[in-house]
Amino acid sequence: MQLVCEGHRQVEGFSEGLQLVLNRPTVLQEPVLRGASDADASGASIYGSVVRDGGLFRMWYQAWPRGWSGSDVIAVGCAESDDGLNWRRPPYGLIECCGTKENHITDLPFHSTSVMIDPSAGPEARYRAFGYTDPRKVQGYPQQITSRGYYTAHSADGIHWELDAAEPLWPSADVITAAWDAYAGCARIAFKHNLRIRGMSRRSFRTAEWAGGKVSESVSALIPDEYDDIVAQARGFHSADYYGVGLMPTEGPTIGFLWNFRHQLPLGSHETSMIRYGWTGAVDLSIVYQTERGGRWLHVPGRPDWLRADQAPPWATGALYTASSPIDVGDETWLYFTGGVDRHGWRGKGVQYSEWSKRVAEEGGWAQIGLAKWIKDRIMGYQSRLRDVIALSPLVLGDERQGRLALNVVTREEGFVRARLVSAQGREEIAGYGFEQCVPIAGDHLQVDVQWQDRGALPDVSDGRSILAEVELVDATLYAFDFVMPG
User: Fold this and answer.
1) 433 shares its domain with 316
2) SS3 of residue 72 by DSSP
3) pLDDT at 276
4) CA-to-CA separations, 254 to 73, 182, 270, in angstroms, rounded
5) Cis peptide before 266, with omega less than 30 degrees from 0?
6) Does the pLDDT value for residue 461 go beyond 80?
7) Does residue 487 surpass a pLDDT of 80?
8) Which of 178, 214, 305, 452 is deepest in the core (most CB within 10 A)?
9) Which residues does residue 246 pair with via DSSP β-bridges, in sequence order?
10) What confidence score (pLDDT) does residue 270 get?
């Protein structure tokens, strides 16, 4: 279905009482995966992906080994689950960790990896991965890596990997996310790119597409601005930038789960240039979106947080980082996320790091993986408290499928939804398709067809007429819709 948002090309207008609101997720109070082996005793980060492969859930994630020194590591674990909640770690025998190869670490030499199934590839490259790597950190891995940067790799089984090239696709930073866009037949990629903005070195993001072994030219996409600093300062921080973004392509807008990094003082400094930058602070999540693929990224008005670290369960109150993309499970959408027990860059003043690392290893690690979920197709919605109307134009499809107007909608106790069809020019009501002839909709519906009395389908518009649907919301919220007409 088409998720509603401001600027959607099928939203032709709405009355002044409607408000765009976020639907915040339900967060499980306990993590679904925490450090539980020597390979990930110090922590488990969903700097990675979860995919459903047939009836199996598979998770690729960043493993922080026992005795972790505090610096970034290259170790992509692959866990499996039958229900997405209880995970097992098969021993692959590939990469030595803590003196043994009896672990679940794959030979994918990436930090911050994204894994997807490429439906356009042959069996030898069924799995596609993007990630950051550094030749100084891949001892024991079979791949040849020339320099730091962002790479791509392929695999037949998701365990044994081969780099597509020894040279990076893009130069170095250290966070990249990617998701397969089934509607466009390509991978959508976002990667960190640092810029000097308002006197500070700030984390921003560039985006690109990948298909058939080729990448598009990257473009600047997500750049922190003055309002991000204002939001951070209102929360008691100094400044802000973006640490990463999870991606959710849909039939309509592309949704982004933005990792907002709010810095506290003192700021850090670059070792050579002494450019100040944010190093310590909280990481919260907000929603951004594109109304068209490759277009401008937009924030929800007011930029409200979708999920805040200080309101998360106790094991996640420091910082939140999402998987590369969510997955649909039945009538729900699931997004795995990392919860950090401390803020980014902070271990406690005067705390001996080696002792701290040993202690958190006994508690499941400094980072653990949790789950946020919500009803499918309900990221944001237009909410009415009284009576309001939103006008929708149809997509005209070049086939003979029957047209339909379907809604993802919730009404409150006395609320209801109706619709009428009008001409696009003059807004004249089409006979038999008025509010009074519409069967009222009440309750909670993921996808309900709008029906009119004695009318089995939408009217024939083969004569070239353009029509609109005026959807009347009375104490209700519209989250998504499907409005199509045959061409």
Assistant:
1) no
2) coil
3) 77
4) 31, 12, 34
5) yes
6) no
7) no
8) 178
9) 257
10) 61
State phi, psi for 320 to the nearest 5 degrees. Answer: -125, 135
- Looking at the structure, do residues 336 and 413 belong to the same domain, yes or no? no
Strand 111-117 to strand 127-133: parallel, antiparallel, or no bridges (unpaired)? antiparallel
Least-confidence region, from 22-36, 77-91, 144-158, 334-348: 334-348
Same domain, yes or no: 193 and 278: yes
Does residue 345 register a pLDDT over 90? no
Per-residue pLDDT, 150: 97
Amino acid at 354: S
Angle (CA) 482-253-330 rounded to 5° is 60
Between 355 and 258, the higher pLDDT residue:
258
If you search the block for the tokens 């991000």, which residue do you land on?
A: 228
Compute the average pLDDT of residues 404-429.
95
- Residues with Cβ < 8 Å from 452, sequence gap 6 or more? 432, 433, 434, 437, 438, 439
Domain co-membership, 204 together with 307: yes
- The CA radius of gyration of the chain, in Å to the nearest whole number, is 24
Statement to judge: residues 10 and 139 lie in one domain = no
Q: Return the structure tokens found at 339.
A: 């919860």
**Same domain, residue pair 194 and 280:** yes
- Same domain, yes or no, for 299 and 371? yes
pLDDT at 63: 97
Kindly give the pairing relationship between strand 467-486 and strand 395-397: parallel
